[in-house]
């Protein structure tokens, strides 16, 4: 069953490697004996994503993306393996969706004539105030 990212973009199941591992840390007897935590691995360079999305993903400064272009997501917040699997997949989907939206082009703006005049008047007022703080003559 393909993993749907957007209506037009999906990933095959074979592109995502999911493995169950034992969760570390506190949580009672159940957590320490059963492999309910999930490690999800996704190779960006070997995926079927369009080149534009691959480049954007690799350019991200996300701690989950390694230098080799692997996305590693660890999920262990739920007690069941299936819920952790779903949580890891949702994190991967949201990461990829984040790069599908094209970045907005910046349109350079200029301050209005009134704004420039207000700025200059404020500077003049501030300068006059500072001039009035000069030394006091005793004459």
From TrEMBL:
Listed Basic and acidic residues bias regions = 125-139
Q: Name the segments for region: Disordered.
A: 100-139
Which GO molecular function annotations are given, in alphabetical order?
peptidyl-tRNA hydrolase activity; ribosome binding; translation release factor activity
The Prokaryotic-type class I peptide chain release factors domain extends over 9-133
SUPFAM superfamilies recorded: Release factor (SSF75620)
- Provide one Gene Ontology biological process annotation: rescue of stalled ribosome
Indicate the family of this protein.
Belongs to the prokaryotic/mitochondrial release factor family.
Full protein name: Peptide chain release factor class i/class ii
């Amino acid at each position: 069953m393909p993993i749907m990212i957007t209506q037009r973009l999906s990933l095959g199941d074979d592109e995502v490697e999911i493995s169950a591992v034992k969760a570390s840390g506190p949580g009672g007897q159940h957590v320490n004996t059963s492999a309910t935590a999930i490690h999800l691995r996704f190779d960006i360079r070997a995926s079927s994503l369009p080149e534009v999305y691959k480049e954007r993903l690799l350019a991200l400064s996300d701690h989950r993306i390694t230098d080799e272009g692997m996305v590693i997501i660890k999920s262990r917040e739920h007690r069941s393996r299936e819920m952790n699997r779903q949580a890891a997949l949702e994190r991967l989907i949201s990461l990829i969706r984040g790069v599908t939206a094209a970045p907005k082009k910046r349109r350079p703006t200029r301050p209005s004539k009134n704004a420039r005049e207000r700025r200059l008047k404020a500077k003049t007022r501030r300068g006059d105030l500072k001039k009035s703080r000069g030394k006091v003559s005793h004459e």
